[in-house]
Amino acid sequence: MSASELLVQARIGKRRLAELPPAVRPGSVDEAYVCQDGVVAGWLAHYGGAVAGYKVACTNVIAQQQLGVDGPFYGRLLSPFCWHSGVRLAADGFFMRVIEAEFGFRMGADLAPVAGGRSREEIAVAVEGLLPAIEIVDSRFDDWEHVGAVSLVSDNACNGGWVRGELIRDWRGADLAAQQVQVRVNGAVAREGSGAAVLGHPLNALQWLVNKVNSRGETVRAGQYMTTGVVSAVYMAEAGDEIEADFGSLGTVAVAFTGSDEPSTR
């Protein structure tokens, strides 16, 4: 089996991997993105849907050190695993439930690859709106903190799902770097952070993400969502947790994880 086939079947079959066998493991990050292409195609062939956007991982130094990588990397958001705020999800639908509060953006114009990349200002003009978001990070690897960048990129940058709040079109006057974010678990504050955690500003992370996607020959499409990385320490959710990320004047986003005796709503 190829590396992409192993990862496709790990999610579908709810089986974790110790590692990608050396014989099929990508030899570089560039090869890992090719593997990711195959993983995404395999999941969409099974679950249906389409690529809904992109995520950036490891936009802060703490996360990079924790995972042993030297910079950000990206994955795709897939429509079967994107939900609206308030969704209740079965906890056992994930190997783990790493909660990351993130600034999300919906694009209002196509951004095709251009020589030299695009400026932050040019990309910001193409944004339709901002939205509070929670990424649910999940991994198909048992020891995800030590498998390295090649395996993490191959595994669609550890995306398990993504939950979005209400779109805010009037966001340009907000100081996103200074914006405080609280993650509340069952009503109590569990984590705090700000937009400065993601490459100094969420638009810096968005710029990195758009240009990285473009560098592989892909166009970022109007209507797609871009999520820019965790703004605080992560929270490991358990069955029964009710989680809300509060972005102050920019809104809130919520997700809950049900036990095996409670149906999920999607």
Low-confidence stretches: none
CATH superfamily: Fumarylacetoacetase-like, C-terminal domain
Strand content: 25-35%
Report the CATH architecture. Answer: Alpha-Beta Complex
Provide the CATH top-level class.
Alpha Beta
As a whole number of angstroms, the C-alpha radius of gyration is 17 Å
Please trace the helix and strand order, writing H or E for each element.
HHEHEEEEHEHEEEHEEEE
Number of domains: 1
What is CATH's topology name? Fumarylacetoacetate hydrolase, domain 2
Question: Which structural class should the secondary elements be placed in?
Answer: alpha+beta
**N→C terminal distance:** 32 Å
Secondary structure blueprint with pairings:
Layout lengths: L2 H11 L15 H19 L3 E7 L3 H7 L5 E6 L3 E3 L2 E4 L7 E10 L12 H6 L1 E11 L11 H6 L4 E6 L15 E6 L2 E7 L7 H14 L9 E6 L4 E2 L5 E5 L5 E7 L8
Parallel strand pairs: 1-10, 3-7, 4-13
Antiparallel strand pairs: 1-2, 5-6, 5-10, 5-11, 6-7, 8-9, 8-12, 12-13
Helix pairs in contact: 1-2
What does this molecule look like?
With 266 residues, the chain is an alpha+beta fold. It has a single domain, classed as Alpha-Beta Complex (Fumarylacetoacetate hydrolase, domain 2), CATH 3.90.850.10. It has 6 helices and 13 strands. Strands 1, 2, 3, 5, 6, 7, 10 and 11 form an 8-stranded mixed β-sheet that branches. The longest helix is centred in the N-terminal third of the chain and has 19 residues, at 29-47. The two termini are 32 Å apart.
